[in-house]
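Practice problem: NrS-1 polymerase-like helicase domain-containing protein
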Amino acid sequence: MHIIRLCGQNVVEGVRFNSDNPNVFNVFHGFKYEKLEQVDESMIDMFINDLTYGAIAGGNQERIGKNRFTDAISEMFSGYSQPNISTIEEFTGTFNSVVENVTFAVLNEMMNYNESKKGTAQAMKTIITDKTIRISEKNYPRRRAENVINTIVVTNNDYTIQLDNSDGRYLVTKCKAVHRGDHEYFNKLSNRMDKDFYDNLLTFFLNRDISKFDPTDIPMTDAKKQLLNVSRTPVDDIIIKNYQKFKDGIPISE
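Answer key — structure tokens:
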């Protein structure tokens, strides 16, 4: 695979994840499931209208369906997804081939979040923003690949990553315990997750009009405000506490 740079954009020649150029080899060979002519919403209503609200839209608690949600999305993208990455090294470390040609990845209760929350955010920066990724695989030369990955971080920890006040990369949400402990609900949902379910789920997402979606317009949620608040450094606390004094000017004697 060769990469050249034209007009400030990275162009991959020879191999692309998905291209209409007949002279380019496509890594993507289609979805595991089929796109239907019409969505039968009764097949996916429990997932779209109920579980999604509980798992994504709304504190970070256990056994409320977060993994059930991400497992379903991973299965929908089967072949191009990583449903359970548990260490930051696997994602951004020396050997990172796990992210190559992956469109959806779940960072699930990563073991070393607590070691360096600021470092985790910095390491993720390239994955989130760059158009290409440098891939290192054991016993193979380093290579560049298109960055097609979309990532969800799932955790029960309220303080996962240390963010800057100016952060514009992370959408932070908290999950509501709508169906926590509701075994009947989750058993019923699991029994529905067959091929018909995934065919309809894929069709539902492929038919959505996202032409006006701006991925850089990330809302400031209450959960993100809380994360930014606990991400403050001691220096930040001093500045906030003495802001008016700094603004007015502090005499040298003080």
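Discussion: The first helix runs from residue 45 to 57. Students who identified this feature from the tokens alone can consider the problem solved.
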